[in-house]
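User: Please predict the structure of the protein below. I'd like the answer in structure-token form so I can feed it into my own downstream comparison script.

Assistant: Understood. Taking the following sequence of 76 residues as input:
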Amino acid sequence: MDKRTILHILFLLFLSAALLYLTKSWLMSLGILMLLLLIDSFLLQYDNKRRREWEERKRQEMEQEMESKESESQQE
């Protein structure tokens, strides 16, 4: 596991302990933590989608640039 994953797990453990302390109810803490994990997974999916789209756009720009350079070199 990388450092970011370990920090994420430690943060979730701290958050669950804090929720348990504040609510004094195991079930309420579990419900809130499940909602937070659901939101976290949706944000991760959104971020991955944006990153893939950005990488695809960059790849297309590089391909177009390479094609234009090739066409320029063939004209000479």
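That's the full token string. The chain has a mean pLDDT of 90.
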